[in-house]
Specification:
Layout: H1 5-38, H2 47-68, H3 75-86
């Protein structure tokens, strides 16, 4: 059985995209850590700024839970969902 080289190229492309997304995540994470913890700390001690940051974080959590559900899910819930959707 001969494997199709297009499948290999497709997998390689998807891996490159996934790697790029992971790199972007780590760069953003590093920037935000540096910004919030090492830059002007006194600027973030104001209550209004803290409230805005908490509001943004709350909206992000609400939207991700709405679209993806409760994460992480345990193994038994995942298996029950698989059994329900396969049948």
């Amino acid at each position: 059985m001969k494997k199709n080289p297009l499948i290999f190229i497709y997998g390689l492309g998807l891996s490159a995209v996934a790697g790029f997304v992971v790199v972007l995540f780590y760069v953003l994470q590093s920037f935000l850590i540096e910004f919030f913890w090492h830059e002007d700390v006194e600027a973030f001690s104001r209550p209004i700024i803290n409230a805005v940051i908490l509001l943004v974080i709350g909206v992000v959590i609400f939207l991700t839970r709405k679209h993806f559900g409760q994460l992480p899910r345990n193994f038994s819930n995942v298996m029950a969902e698989i059994r329900r959707t396969v049948r």
